[in-house]
Amino acid sequence: MGLHGKRAIVTGSTSGIGRGIAQALAAEGASVMLNGFGEADEIERLRTELASFGGTIAYSAADMTRADEIAEMVEQAGRSLGGVDILVNNAGIQFTAPIGEFPREQWDRVLAINLSAAFHAMQAATPRLREAGWGRIINIASAHGLVASAQKAAYVAAKHGLVGLTKVAAIELANSGVTCNAICPGWVLTPLVERQIAERAAREGRAAGDAERALLAEKQPMLQFTRPEQIGAMAVFLCSEAAATITGAALSIDGGWTAG
Ligand code: NAD
Hints:
The chain is α/β, with parallel strands linked by helices. It has two domains: 7-186 and 227-250, NAD(P)-binding Rossmann-like Domain (Rossmann fold, 3-Layer(aba) Sandwich), CATH 3.40.50.720; 187-225, no CATH class. It has eight helices and seven strands. Helix 3 runs parallel beside helix 4, helix 4 packs parallel to helix 5 (153-172) and helix 6 (191-204) packs across helix 7. The termini are far apart. The structure holds nicotinamide-adenine-dinucleotide (NAD). Residues 12, 14-18, 35-38, 63-65, 90-93, 113-114, 140, 142, 185, 187-188, 190-193 line the site of nicotinamide-adenine-dinucleotide.
C-alpha cells in the first residue's frame, strides 16, 4: 500500500489502459477520481470494486473536449478526495484516414482529447500538486509519440505534442517535488485497438485472429500485446520514491516497436 493517502485523477479510466492504471493505483491504497464515458451501472461497479482497497473512489463525467469541465473535474477531486497528488492524462481516441481525406472535425477532436485535455488538466491541477511539495504527472502518450504511421496524422501529431508538453512541464516543475513523464505503449488490446483489428479484418477480408497477428507483426518485433495492468504497474513505479528523479522522460513499453 505504497500510495496510501495519495489522491489521483485518472482520465479515461472507465476502459482499457486508464482502468488498469486506476486499478493499480487503488490497489496501492490511493484514492482515485475516475473519469470517462460508459454505462452508469458499469462505472458504479468499478467504483465499488476499487473502493474495496480502502481509498475514496469518486467519478467525474467531465468531457475531455471541454476545458471548463476539466477544471471542474480537478475542483471535484479537491473536494471529494481532499486534494490532488497524481494526475494521469490517459483519455484518448483514434481516427484513421490519409491526410488528404482526414475530416477536419476528427482532426480537432483527436487533438482536443489526446493533447489539449492534458494541457487543461495540468494547468488546473499543477497548483494543487505544487502545494504538497510532492506530485506526479503521467501522460499516456504512445509509440506514436516517438515514431509515425500512415493514416494517423492527428493521433501522431497529438502524441508527439504530448511528449513535448511532458518535457516542458518537467523543466518548469523540476524543483517543486513534482515529476512529469510520458508512458509510450505499443499495442495494448483494448477497445481502441479492437476497433482497428475489426476494421482491418473487414478491409482485408481476414479472420479477426489473422488481422490481430498482422497488426502486431507490422510494427512490433515482440508479437504480444502489453496488458493494461502492466501499464498500471509502470505508473505505480513512477509514483514511487525510486522514480523521484525520473522526469521529462518518454518511457517506452512497446515490445521493441521503437527499437528498430
Ligand atoms: P479505450 O478506448 O479502451 O479507453 C479510452 C478511455 O477514454 C475511455 O474511458 C473513454 O470513455 C475515455 N474517453 C474518450 N473520449 C473521452 C472524452 N471526450 N472525455 C472523457 N473521456 C473520454 O482506449 P485505450 O486503448 O485504453 O487508450 C487509453 C490511452 O492509451 C489513449 O490515450 C491511447 O491513445 C493510449 N494508447 C493506447 C494504446 C493501445 O494499444 N491501446 C497504445 C498506445 C497508447
